[in-house]
Amino acid sequence: YSKIKSMKNYFKEIEKKLGDHIKFERLLIVDNSHKHVGHKFFNKEKLHLQLKIKSLYLSSLSKINAHKIIMKILKKDLQDKIHALEISIEK
């Protein structure tokens, strides 16, 4: 239970970090870590996350620029807590 609770708290942190820098209408964060257990560089301490973000702002940018913005905001997380990040941007 505490792992689920801390995961929810961490997802709220990510949501806040993104919301402090970009406008979005909806954000869904999916933990896909279980899909990567057998992979060569799998580390149970780091997460494989998928961000499904609905943002008129991000969808107005090129896909590369939108991804760069998200990666910059989550730079520290990508070093410490996130191993892989899949980003889907909806209009």
Write structural notes for this entry:
It is a single chain. By secondary structure, this protein is an alpha+beta fold. The protein is built from 4 helices and 3 strands. The protein has helices at 2-21, 56-59, 63-73, 75-80; strands at 26-31, 47-54, 82-90. A 3-stranded mixed beta sheet has the order 1-2-3. It starts with a helix and ends with a strand. The mean pLDDT is 89.
Write the layout of secondary structure elements.
Elements: H1 2-21, E1 26-31, E2 47-54, H2 56-59, H3 63-73, H4 75-80, E3 82-90
Parallel strand pairs: 2-3
Antiparallel strand pairs: 1-2
Provide keyphrases for this structure.
three-stranded mixed sheet; 91 residues; 45% helix; globular; alpha+beta
Largest sheet: 3 strands, mixed
Strand-pairing-aware structural class: alpha+beta
Overall geometric form: globular
Number of helices: 4
- Helix and strand run: HEEHHHE
Record field, number of beta strands = 3
Instruction: Report Rg.
Output: 13 Å
Fraction in helix = 40-55%
In order across it, which strands form the biggest sheet?
A: 1-2-3
β-sheet strand percentage: 25-35%
Could you tell me the mean pLDDT? 89
Flag low-confidence runs: none
Distance between the termini: 35 Å
Can you give me a brief rundown of this structure?
By secondary structure, the protein is α+β, with helices and mostly antiparallel strands. It has helices at 2-21, 56-59, 63-73, 75-80, and strands at residues 26-31, 47-54, 82-90.
